[in-house]
Amino acid sequence: MVKQGDLIFLYHDDRRNFLIKTEDKTLHTDKGFLKISSLIGKRFGEKVETNLGIPFYILRPYLYELIMKVRRKTQIMYPKDIGMILIRGNIFPGAKVIESGIGSGALTTALANFVRPTGRVYSYERNEEFLANAKKNLEKNGLSEWVELKNQEITDEFDEKEADFIMIDIGSPWDLIDAAYKSLKGGSRLATICPTFEQLTRTVFTLEEKGFINIETMEILLRKILVRRGKTRPEQRMPSHTGWLVFATKIYP
Questions:
Q1: Is 217 contained in some domain?
Q2: Which helix or strand (DSSP H or E) is residue 209 part of?
Q3: Closest C-alpha to 8, from 66, 69, 61
Q4: Are residues 125 and 209 in the same domain?
Q5: What does the H/E/C string look like for 1-43?
Q6: How many independent structural domains does the chain possess?
Q7: Exposed end of the chain (fewer CB within 10 Å): N or C?
């Protein structure tokens, strides 16, 4: 049953869907309006109608919706890349994770979801506006408990040591490779995302120089398929290049 303050995903179609909390407000859409408090006591999966009789469905919000519906102050990390980061970075319940460059908190949302209930994400961001926005997103998504936000710019060293994974998402990731080496456990991994070839090559060459092995670089592409009777085909638009992912593993000299 839906309770007061629950986060729900209200769905009509691919263009009209909303991640909202059940509170005393009114949702206005081009298909009519709906009193959000009227959803309390209903079942997930149940249909409700706007004042115009247009159906919406009460769904549980999954991690995909939590990520894609963050309020954006920056370009976000997309689920197609986040999924690879989670498995290549070996994110698990109880993990200690360091993130440099929180952006709008999309990746942070995923990391916090996977380290709970006993792990923690330490997220560094020098831009106060980005940090404040990410904090609101994490609070709305119910994940702020597992994230420690730090309004700092790191140059030489992170505060935390013996980290299970480090994510570097800044314009010059090579600047933090020494700091990442100092904080990672032996045999653990770091990752970064590089939008341009120049950033990519400098990052990989620096990783090679600084004592990392198992360096992998990849690009994740996603293409959806329009399934229609007699005319199924790929969608014409697709989220293709967002950045090259780089993974590397720390070893001792």
A1: yes
A2: helix 197-209
A3: 61
A4: yes
A5: CCCCCCEEEEECCCCCEEEEECCCCEEEECCEEEEHHHHCCCC
A6: 2
A7: C
Q: Which domain holds residue 44?
A: 7-61
- Note down pLDDT in tens along the chain; length 253 residues: 999 989 999 999 989 999 998 887 899 999 999 999 999 999 999 999 999 999 999 999 999 999 999 999 998 999 999 999 999 999 999 999 999 999 999 999 999 999 999 999 999 999 999 999 999 999 999 999 999 999 999 989 999 999 999 999 999 999 999 999 999 999 999 999 999 999 999 999 999 999 899 999 999 999 999 999 999 999 888 777 889 999 999 999 8
Task: Give the CATH number, domain containing residue 130.
Answer: 3.40.50.150
How far is Cα 85 from Cα 165, in angstroms, rounded to an integer?
10
pTM attached to this predicted model:
0.91
